[in-house]
């Protein structure tokens, strides 16, 4: 099952951040469809649209791996199914 | 491609992390009509087995959804067929074993509350209803997770005034039996007018006769989010702009509820019922309906202007919410429980908010006289008169009203009681001493109002 998800990173910008997150995704067989970076209210924000191959890595397992990676680099990583944003922000 | 902007994503994350956005409850409604048996012990065992089997997956499924969508689901609960219907099958005077079976089942499946130790007596009290009501004080004192509710009035039937007094007595008995916990048992007991069949919120949840065998109902939350939006408006923003901002926010909150309701129903393999658009506060700082009223521009909740602000808030939430789901239901109106809302508690402590003002507020929101602690020596007739007044508002205005009064044993005005958790803490409020004791003792039925003749 291929599930679209949004990965958000909030925190301080630093070298290797994108690489660290991307490595976890690649190892899990998850594909990055889109990636954006911006500064919102002085906080570095990176947003990725990711397609998760749940047959390769279950959603909650990938979620735990990403949270651990975020903790290691000192940023807050949130990984959620994409439809929650579509539901809340689009009619 | 990403069709959601990073700003929108951050807005959602801030709502969750800083403004207490959550799904207040996913409530599984279960029909237990098939558990009726003339042997109370057999019936109780059937109830226990039915609930544990049918609700077995509720908590794990909700926890998984919560993780995957990143939205906390604060409470997982169960609502069942009003137990008075089952009580009528047996002859036992005390049907507490049914409550104990529900309590055990709730603990087994990991839900904090199960609602439905209930009776509907708005037009008359049947034998099963009478035995259920008589069992409420005992049941609430020997169980932890069971909630009781009784409907004593409806627009179609009027007010069963005998039942109103009977419920006031049941409240006093419950207060006495749970005296060592500041009469906490009364916090699990609601007296309704125009009770709804699909309310997902405790303590008044039950699974009505018009419902399917199993159904998922969801209660949204979000006072903290609404307050943040109102506070962010310019000081001179007019009320149309305030209403518009609340409406847009309510839409987003409701959509989150709609998504969770659909997903929970799909994964549990049961019908999706309703999304209840009630703003439900918690004792957490900032997650307060009183704070919204003050952010709109009332100096302290309860002061003149409060009813206007609450009416505007309640209406805007419905308008935004109605756009967000086609399955509106339940109570769908702001809750203003005193002990569960830190802003309400502050307003009472400051002398701004009184019982009478809360009664006025009842007329423009969902559940008005909620989690109000009154002196332990308040006579039952006075409690009954307060309940009757709330019922009169509901019956005449064709809306639900409810009262959850706690005459805390041994406490008087000036004392504070502490219940902890979602129930919070509250100062003991004074009750007007000029009660309609004679009115209550007349008993009988308050006739159905002219407004009931709608056909």
Description:
The complex is a heterodimer of chains A (91) and B (455). With 91 residues, chain A is α+β, with helices and mostly antiparallel strands. Chain A contains 3 helices and 4 strands, in the order βαββαβα. Chain A has one domain (2-89): Alpha-Beta Plaits. Chain A has helices at residues 17-27, 59-73, 83-89, and strands spanning 2-11, 31-40, 43-53, 76-81. The longest helix of chain A is centred in the last third of the chain and has 15 residues, at 59-73. The mean pLDDT of chain A is 91. Chain B is of the alpha/beta class and 455 residues long. Helix content of chain B is 44%, strand content 17%. Chain B contains 15 helices and 14 strands. Chain B has helices at 6-18, 40-54, 58-69, 83-87, 96-109, 127-142, 161-177, 223-232, 239-268, 289-296, 306-324, 342-349, 355-362, 380-396, 437-442, and strands spanning 23-30, 73-80, 113-120, 146-154, 158-160, 189-193, 214-220, 271-276, 328-329, 369-375, 401-408, 416-418, 425-427, 445-446.
CATH domain fold name of the domain at 24-59 and 70-193 in chain B = Anaerobic Ribonucleotide-triphosphate Reductase Large Chain
How many domains make up the coordinates of chain A? Answer: 1
Order of helices and strands of chain A: EHEEHEH
What structural category arises from helix and sheet content of chain B?
alpha/beta
Count of helical segments of chain B?
15
Helix content range of chain A: 25-40%
Distance between the termini of chain A: 26 Å
Could you give the order of strands across the largest sheet of chain A? 2-3-1-4
Q: Report the CATH topology name of chain A.
A: Alpha-Beta Plaits
Question: What is the name of the CATH superfamily of chain A?
Answer: ACT domain
Query: Strand fraction band of chain B?
Result: 15-25%
Q: Mind telling me the CATH class of chain A?
A: Alpha Beta
Shape of chain A: globular
């Amino acid at each position: 099952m291929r599930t679209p998800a949004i990965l958000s990173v909030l925190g301080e910008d630093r070298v290797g951040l994108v690489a660290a997150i991307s490595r976890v995704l690649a190892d899990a067989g998850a594909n990055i469809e889109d990636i954006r970076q911006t500064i919102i209210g002085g906080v570095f924000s990176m947003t990725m649209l990711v397609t998760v191959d749940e047959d390769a890595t279950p959603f909650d397992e990938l979620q735990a791996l990403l949270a651990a990676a975020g903790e290691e680099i000192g940023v807050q990583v949130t990984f959620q199914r994409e439809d929650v944003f579509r539901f809340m922000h689009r009619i | 491609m990403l069709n959601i902007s990073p700003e929108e994503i951050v807005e959602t994350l801030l709502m969750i992390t800083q403004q207490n956005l959550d799904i207040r409850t996913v409530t599984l409604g279960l029909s237990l009509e098939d558990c009726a048996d003339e042997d109370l012990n057999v019936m109780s065992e059937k109830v226990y087995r039915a609930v544990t089997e049918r609700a077995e997956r509720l908590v794990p499924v909700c926890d998984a959804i919560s993780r995957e969508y990143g939205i906390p689901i604060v409470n997982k609960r169960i609502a069942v067929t009003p137990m008075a219907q089952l009580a009528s099958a047996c002859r036992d005077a005390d049907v507490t074993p049914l409550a104990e079976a529900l309590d055990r089942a709730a603990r087994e499946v990991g839900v904090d509350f199960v609602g439905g130790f209930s009776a509907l007596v708005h037009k008359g009290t049947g034998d099963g209803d009478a035995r259920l009501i008589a069992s409420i004080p005992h049941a609430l004192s020997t169980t932890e997770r069971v909630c009781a509710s009784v409907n004593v009035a409806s627009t179609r039937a009027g007010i069963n005034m005998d039942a109103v007094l009977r419920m006031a007595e049941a409240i006093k008995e419950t207060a006495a039996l749970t005296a060592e916990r500041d009469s906490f048992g009364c916090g699990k007991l609601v007296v309704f007018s125009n009770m709804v069949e699909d309310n997902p919120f405790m303590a008044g949840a039950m699974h009505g006769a018009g419902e399917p065998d199993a159904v998922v109902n969801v209660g949204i939350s979000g006072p903290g989010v609404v307050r943040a939006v109102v506070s962010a408006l310019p000081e001179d923003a007019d009320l149309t702009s305030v209403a518009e901002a609340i409406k847009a926010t309510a839409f987003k909150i409701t959509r989150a509820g709609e998504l969770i309701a659909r997903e929970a129903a799909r994964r549990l393999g049961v019908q999706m019922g309703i999304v209840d658009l009630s703003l439900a506060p918690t004792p957490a700082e900032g997650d307060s309906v009183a704070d919204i009223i003050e952010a709109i521009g009332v100096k302290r909740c309860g002061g003149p202007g409060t009813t206007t602000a609450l009416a505007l808030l309640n209406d805007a939430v419905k308008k935004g919410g109605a756009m967000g789901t086609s399955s509106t239901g339940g109570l769908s109106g702001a809750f203003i429980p005193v002990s569960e809302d830190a802003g309400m508690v502050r307003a009472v402590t400051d002398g701004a908010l009184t019982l009478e003002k809360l009664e006025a507020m009842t007329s423009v929101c969902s559940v008005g006289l909620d989690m109000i602690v009154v002196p332990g020596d308040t006579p039952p007739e006075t409690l009954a008169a307060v309940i009757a007044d709330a019922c009169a508002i509901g019956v005449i205005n064709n809306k639900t009203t409810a009262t959850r009064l706690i005459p805390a044993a041994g406490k008087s005005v000036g004392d504070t009681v502490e219940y902890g958790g979602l129930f919070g803490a509250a100062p003991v409020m004074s009750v007007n001493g000029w009660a309609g004791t004679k009115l209550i003792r007349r008993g009988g039925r308050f006739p159905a109002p002219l407004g009931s003749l709608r056909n």
